[in-house]
Write a structure and sequence with these properties.
By secondary structure, this protein is mainly alpha-helical. Helix content is 29%, strand content 0%. It is built from 2 helices and no strands. Helix 1 packs across helix 2. The protein starts with 28 loop residues before the first helix and ends in a 21-residue tail after the last helix.
């Protein structure tokens, strides 16, 4: 059963603001999700790690956490 206090990432507005100096965000949740689904479809859901998704996008895994929360709050494979 889902935690009623957790708001789905898809229900939260996608805000493109800088959190500090530097470049503006270069990815969208849709772009990240499409990449993850493509990897999962081809190799299984276990292969769709943040590191792998980031590699496909040409960025570092930690940079994706400014767009999406940790996997524990976004999906369940059970």
């Amino acid at each position: 059963m889902a935690d009623e206090n957790v708001t789905s990432i898809w229900m939260q507005p996608e805000v493109h603001v800088r959190s500090g100096p530097g470049r503006r965000p270069g990815y969208s949740r849709e772009q990240i999700t499409r990449t993850a689904v493509r990897i999962a479809d081809a190799e299984g859901v276990e292969a769709a790690t943040m590191r792998r998704i980031a590699g496909e996008l040409g960025t570092g895994a930690m940079s994706l956490y400014r767009y999406v929360p940790p996997a524990a709050t976004t999906c369940s494979t059970s």
